[in-house]
Structures are given as structure tokens and as C-alpha cells.
Protein 1
Amino acid sequence: MKARRCGVTLTAARLGEQIATEALRFVGLREVRPNAAWDNPKTPGPETALTQELRALMRPTPWQPGWAYCAAFREAVVRAAFANLGITAAEGARFFNTMGPGVRVSFRAFAALKLTSAEPARGAIWFARHGTSANGHAGIVTAHGQGLLGTIEDNTSLDSRNTAKDREGDWITSRLFPAKGRGPLVTLGFVTPEAILKLCFP
């Protein structure tokens, strides 16, 4: 899938790389106020600018400080990637109207448009279901192969053995796990950069 705008060719690979790059910028942040403010404990001083940027990117979802943000974070990094590639608000509107603050609701909305995939790609949104519940979790795919999936996730913990915090933790971090899921988190599918382009440039 390719889209042309202002003489520039947008490819799924280029969009996927931008989404992954934007997600990587926030890795290492830990909540200092639950679901509201973050800091990197490995760097000196507060991460005020990065926290403000993240909050601003998530607010249009609509997301509010204090709310769980695993779906809102997906919107945030896609919004930043769109801006870097010159994709306008009008062009990106169909994505943001489909992707909302709820993981399971968002996945069903993409599935209804036949835009979900069983196969990952770099920069894809990974959607998972938490056991048999109505709850979900999401991440950004950074790598895949040999039955494994690399993601960047938020609202998670550094230790996936802590299943209580695997989707309700206080870190933004990278993860590596079997592509079918981990513990109670079962992979539902993916929305790839190619699908995002199809949605924005029908």
C-alpha cells in the first residue's frame, strides 16, 4: 500500500518505522502519579517536557489524567508519526475515529472494517484480550519472527510474571514474548501500518 501526498510517497514500511520510532522515545518512563505523570528514574531531573508531550498527544482520544492509557498511548504515537510524515488531521481523522480509548472496542471497530490482521508488522498495533474478560491490552510491534513478538507497552510492569500488573502496571517499556500472547493476555490480532494507510487514504 502506497499513498502519495504533496509529491511524497508514503509506504506502510515508512509509516511503521515512524510509529515504532515515536513509541521508543517514551521507553523507560515510570508513573510518578498513577496514569497521569511519568519520569525516567535513570535520568537526572524530572522528564517534564516528555510528560507534557505525552499527555498532550493522548488528550484528544479523549483521554483524561488518571485513566488507563494503553489504547490512548497507541493513538499518541500514531498521531506523532502522522505529524512527522505530514499527514494532516483531516487525512488521519478516519483512524482516530476508529481507534478509541478502549482496547476491545477499538479492535472490534477495526475488525468491522476488515482492517485487522493475524500477522504482525513493525509499527503495527498489537491487540490482546485479558483472559476471558472484557478487558484488553495493547502495544506497538517493534520486532517479530520465530514465533516471538517484540512490543513497546505502557500500563505494564517490568516483570511479565506479575500477571496482576502485566496490563495495569506503571511502566512504559519494551517486551518480548510468544506471538500468541503471554500469561492471561491472548493475542487478538494486529492493525498494521498498511491497514492504517488504507483507512486514511481509501
Note: The mean pLDDT is 91.
Protein 2
Amino acid sequence: MVDCIRQAGLEIPIILGYGINNPERVKEAVQTGADGIIVGTAMIERITGGDYEALSAFIRSIKDATLPA
């Protein structure tokens, strides 16, 4: 889908979301060439659970997944 949007010549940011809830999914999204990702529910679950250490580790893992290998 990202390729189709790019080939259509649309000059808009392409942001992927829904189901991006772990580093592997982030890597997949990055590999599509998307301009950004949205991670929602996975973060909210950690916030509402009050597990801020897990939230911090999760955010770090998501960031690391965006970096080149």
C-alpha cells in the first residue's frame, strides 16, 4: 500500500498504525518506507497498568527497532 501511494505521486506523509505493538512490527513498518508509525494501545496498556518501567523499556525497544541494523 505504501508503494501504491508513493507511485500515485501523492506528496503526503504516510503514517502506519493499527497492530504495531512490538519491535518486530515496527521493523516491518519501517521497511515499507513509511514516514512514521503510530503505537497506541500497547502504550496505553502499560500506562494504565502503572508499569512505567515496562513503558520505558517498550519505548526504548520501539526506538531501537527504527534504527538501521
Note: Residues 52-66 form the longest helix (15 residues).
